[in-house]
Amino acid sequence: MFEPETDDPFEQFRRWLSEAEAAEVNDANAMTLATADSDGRPSARIVLLKDFDARGFAFYTNTESQKGRHLEVNPFASLCFHWKSMRRQVRVEGPVISVSDLEADEYYASRPRGSRIGAWASQQSRPLADRPTLLAAVARFDAEYENRDVPRPSYWSGYRLTPMRIEFWQDGEFRLHDRFVFSRASDGAAWTVQRLFP
Question: I need a labelling partner for 138 at 20 to 30 A (CA). Which of 16, 98, 121, 164 fits?
Fold first, then answer.
């Protein structure tokens, strides 16, 4: 049986993420990101959590991608972490804002050079004629930035989801799972915690 170890959901998440990083074979920081367009039509995809603290959960992308376009018109999203080997899940919901330019610059600079070149070469989410077209773009930008720093494109940045709801789920025998949800009315407000039926 699972009971929250703390009344701070950020600390509870940190503990579970740390355990997942020790147990999962690949990408313990992988999360499903669900966004919706201006008509409320949802779309989900896997992205990687790149920063996490009391401000929220940060990820990075091409802001002109489908998720970037969604967040521009509907700046609210949901995340889902699923650690299959640990039989655990965490769901997070809340408003989304852009990270600062300084944060985006710092994270972009930490990426491998090939990933930075890829940010220039890929027109994410747009139609691509064929693979050679992409590889030609990679080669062009690789040559353009040969022997010099690869700057961050203006259309590449990060987003931070500020959670208003964080649900922790632990698998239980006979599908009698343990579910706890932490919720708050606004950023900075006190958290309340409630056990849920499985």
Answer: 98
Cβ atoms of 117 and 138 closer than 8 Å: yes
Q: Which residues are catalytic?
A: 175
Residue 9 in 3-state DSSP? helix
Print pLDDT tens along the chain (198 aa). Answer: 788 888 999 999 999 999 999 998 899 999 999 999 999 999 999 999 999 999 999 999 999 999 999 999 999 999 999 999 999 999 999 999 999 999 999 999 999 999 999 999 999 989 999 999 999 999 999 999 999 999 999 999 999 999 999 999 999 989 889 999 999 999 999 999 999 999
pTM for the predicted model, two decimal places: 0.93
User: Structurally, what CATH architecture does the domain formed by 9-109+154-196 represent?
Assistant: Roll (2.30)
Structural domain boundaries in the chain: 9-109+154-196
Q: Is 34 helix (H, G, I), strand (E, B) or coil?
A: strand
Contact 137, 34 (CB under 8 A): no
Q: Cα 167 vs. chain centroid, distance in angstroms?
A: 16
Pick the closest to residue 121 from 107, 106, 105, 135 (CA basis): 135
Count each helix (H run) and each strand (E run) in the chain, helices first.
Answer: 5, 10
